[in-house]
Amino acid sequence: MLEDLKNINYSLTKDNFIYFMVDVFGNNRYDITSLSVLCNHAPGRLQLLFSDLLNYCIAFEWVLREENVYFLSPSIIKYIDDKEKLNDKLVKDSVIMLFNANLINADMFIYEANTDKIRFKNERFSLEFSIVRNALISQGLFEIRRTTKRTYFYLSETYFNFVSSFIKQQKKKLSLDQLKRKLEENEKSGDLAERFVLEFEQKRLPASLRSKIRIISSIDVTAGYDIVSFESANSLEIDRFIEVKAINHEKRFFWSQNEYEVAKLKGNRYYLYLVELNNIRKADYKPIIICDPVNSVMKSDEWLVETQTFCVRHISS
Predict the structure, then answer these.
(1) Pick from 1, 8, 20, 152: most CB atoms within 10 A?
(2) Which is nearest to 36 in space by CA: 49, 55, 17?
(3) ∠ CA(1), CA(93), CA(118), 5° rounding?
(4) Closest residue by Cα to residue 260 from 230, 292, 233
(5) What is the pLDDT of residues 103-134, one digit of tens each?
């Protein structure tokens, strides 16, 4: 049904959708003629183009049809008394359907440390569906930043966690069947270790900075680190980049070439946090924290480095 969106030329906005669903439809059922008349009486600022708006809502299954009668989906009706919750529902429905149709995918998103934002690679999005992208900008999914050279699309703060979790779910589905079990085991350990480090950092830093400490590994697997944080309460920007490794008593972990190269670039702003999962429930447990591992691990007598993607094993007594 999303293919029908290619035939829509009129730019639709958040206000269009809200008015159409709350003030035109509500809990009522209408034939096509009645809907057209009601839309023609919309306030001038809304400029409702009836056919495009109806087809858009049908494509996303917000409006249903039985014979010649149209009505709102029950999943939409329960939100019509709260316009902001309704808009949030529409945005999330749109994201889910676009992911499921592969019109957007995980490769279209990248985390930018310098802005602490998830950037949407608009150049990879089909121009045939630009009407949807523009609607989502109006609805608050994307924020626009323009420079003299280009326009950037960033995911809004409101939907950071929602899209992050959805990207993660998609990546799970794309895993090769023969590796699925092993990948899920590794991911579970990694998720647990990352969550522990996130909470550890939130306790280490003042409340004013805690909301900006983020797990970004599910968004950008090429970043070379899992968590962005701050050196101290005096930090004015993100300046601690943390790669989390779940380890056992052998203190052995794998470090990829990409992670190593990023660590070289970040220097003393790059950290390894080694987390023994068996100990994280102890109240006084702290992970092993290694600053600038390119120098403090790779050039240390306390660690044995075996070249594969670097296999690192702690050898000190």
Answers:
(1) 20
(2) 49
(3) 115
(4) 292
(5) 998 889 988 988 889 999 999 998 889 999 99
